[in-house]
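Entry for the shared binder. Reason: the reviewer on the internal report wants the predicted structure included alongside the sequence.
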Amino acid sequence: MTKQRPSMRDVARAANLSVSAVSMVIHDKPGIGAQARERVRAAISQLGYKVTPTPGNGKAQAVGLLIEKSSMPVILDVFYGDIIRGFQAEAQRLGRQVLLHMFDRTAESLEGLRASLAHEVQGLVVANDGDITPEMVIQLEALNVPLVLIENHIPGQQLPCILGDNFRAGYTVTHHLLALGHQSIAVLRGPNKYSSLVDRLRGCLAAAAEVGLLIPPAWMPQPVSGHPQKGYLQMQEILRTPERPTAIVAISDKTAFGAMDAIKEAGLRIPHDIAIASIDDVVESAYTRPPLTTFRIPKYEMGVLAMQKLQRLIGNEQEIAVKSIVYGDLVVRESCGTHMSYATERTGFAVR
C-alpha cells in the first residue's frame, strides 16, 4: 500500500497553525511571526511536504473566477458584486491573484475558454450558471484543475459547491406574506437557466401549496429575455389582469426594484394597495421607498468560503465534495406591512 502524500493540512496540524497561515508562509506573505514560520518549515521538512514552486510570471498563484457576461459592469451587479468582493478579499489574504473571466457565449468558444484557463490558473470558481451550462462545467472539470461552484449545482455530478439557502428563501418570504393574511399572491419568477432562481420559485410554490393556495399562471409571468428591467415589465403585465394581487413575491431584489417602480407608476401604494417581499438583501433594499422586506443571502461570505475551499483543493488536501448551503434570514421592513389585524380585515383571511 503506497504512503499517502502529505497535505497542507498535515503541515498545519504538525505546526499547530491554521491552513491559511501555512499557505502564507509557503508563499512568503507578510503577517506571520518568525517563530510560526520556523515551525512551518520544520513541519514541511519532517513530513516531506512538496511545495509547488512559483514561476517567475506568477501564474501558479492565480485563481480564476468565471461568470457569464453581464449587461452591466459586473462589480456593480447586485448578484455578482458581493461574491467577487468576498472571493477577492480572501484570495488576497492567501496571497493569490484573481483573474476574472466573463464568458460571452456569442463571441467565445468553449475550446478557447478551456485553453485560456488551463494555462493561466491553478484553480477555478464558477459563479452562477445561466450561459455557463452543466455541459460546460463538466468539460471544465476535465481540465483536472481544482473546481468549486457558487450558486450552481449539477444533478448527478459530485462537485464541491457553495449555495445560498434558496428554497428556504422562497418559502420564507411567501410564508411571511401568508402570515400577514394575503391570499392573492403573485410571483415574479426568474429565468429558468438559473438554478438558484428555480430553487427559490420551488420554495414559493411549496409555501403556497401548504395552505392550498393556487397561484394563477397570469400572476407568474415569464421574464422578458435579455431585458434589464424584467421585474418592471412583469409587474406591468400583472397589473393589466382583470384582478390584481394583494401581494408580490419577487425572485430577487433587482426584480423587486423594477416592480416597485411599476406599482408606483400605476398610482398604487406599497404596502397599502400591494405588498412586496423579495430575496437577496442587497444594500439598496434598505433604502427603497418603502424599505424592502427581503431574505438575506450572504453572498460576500459565499465568496470567502469558495476561495477557502479552492485553496484546500489546490493544496492537495483531502476534501470530500460537499454541497454547502449557507443559511440566511428574513429581514422585515415596511414594504409588506406588519399588522395582522389590517391584513386580516383587508383579505378576510386569518392564519392559524
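Summary line for the report: The radius of gyration is 24 Å.
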